[in-house]
Predict the structure.
Amino acid sequence: MSLEDRLYPLLGIYEKLPLPLKRGAGRLYRMLPDHFRLGRHYAGFVALAESGRLATPTELLDYQTVELRRVIGHAAESCPLYKKRFESAGFDPRRLGSPEDLSRCPLLEKQDLIDFREDLASTRIPRSQRLYITTGGSTGVPVGFYLHRGISRPKEQAFLEALWRRAGYTAGARIAVIRGHVVNPRSHGRIASYDATRDWLMLSSYHLTEPRLPEYLEEIERFRPDLLHAYPSAALQLAEYMERSGQLWRTPIKAILCGSERLTIPQKRLLERVFRCRVYRWYGHSERAVLAGEGTASEWFYFWPQYGYVEFGPPDDQGLQEVIGTSFHNLAMPLIRYRTGDYVRVADPSRDGPAEFPWPAATEIAGREQEFLVSAEGRRISLTAFNMHDAIFDHLYAVQFFQEQPGIAEFRYVPSPSFHKSRLLSIEAGIRRKLGDDFQIALREVGETEKTARGKHRWLVSRLP
């Protein structure tokens, strides 16, 4: 297990230390070798990601076939739900000759993670090696699952860094971050804190109001980062403000790293024009089945073949296809043919031009829109930033915000039979910590939440203009 995993439970204590002590402890932590901070598997994943850039299609196919056999064989032997479903479908993992044979394997739904989480977990991996994570995603359906402690986090770090290097990232880069960090829950609280363990400036995603946007620009200029790592909605608010007020960006940066929300090409061009650098987009999800990012010189999203195996569902009436992923390396809870609920427009070289890498690719990531709750004082709170990663929404089938007036929101929830109303106070407290003190919140139990025309859950129903 990495030192980072071991120290994670102590993060709350570290955050309460006086600033000089935090800076000193963080500086000492940064001086430790990578294998000590990030675990003994980190270097292996760095090498794996680097080899993917140079591997031939045949070598990549061989690697994926070996990994699919390993993870599916492991699931069949140690995960009760997979064993049952493989037998029911007549799917024999021992006969998997190539990735194409995976089409005979049954699909895994998000609801399966909710209903059968413990039966999806491997009986061979001790509970001490499981890392529990939850996500509401863009659908408003709380999903809990297990990552592999000491494996999943260093892997994610290594592959994300490999993606970001295409945009100019280097080890030890100073980064300004606007990605859901709660610096202060008060509407007039401070907007920035310093993470000395990484030499990062952490900026609030919850105070992006017109009067306070100059503070963000001042904090970033004072910090002088190498890169800006932001939710697209946050970066766009800064860029639009600068254009409206006639301001010029004065702090040279290598790139803006954007993920977790959809960023269209016109929006990307706006950011590149204002910030005078490349904007680099990538696609991933908390479940960590697949990962994709733009190329070095192209704007397609290339799915990393050594991170996980990607398939695409049938096209809908708009030509979009669902991302279906099979995770590699996470033996604590493998996800096999997992329907992500995310849709993409698959790249076609005959239509879209030559590919930069011989990998599956998409020209557009649909969904994950930039949705906001609006506070009484005009703060726009991205629901991507609001997303919880603890067990606060466990035993709720669906959650949804409804808003008709700024500063007033209704939190609707669909309880499971095992949900106890005594948990409502902690849920409300968790919501208030995220939204701040200029919101009125009401919790309401409903039989079902409003859905899209496709029948998907919605995270937000807004009646605001």
Remarks:
- Residues 115 and 378 are 39 Å apart (CA to CA).
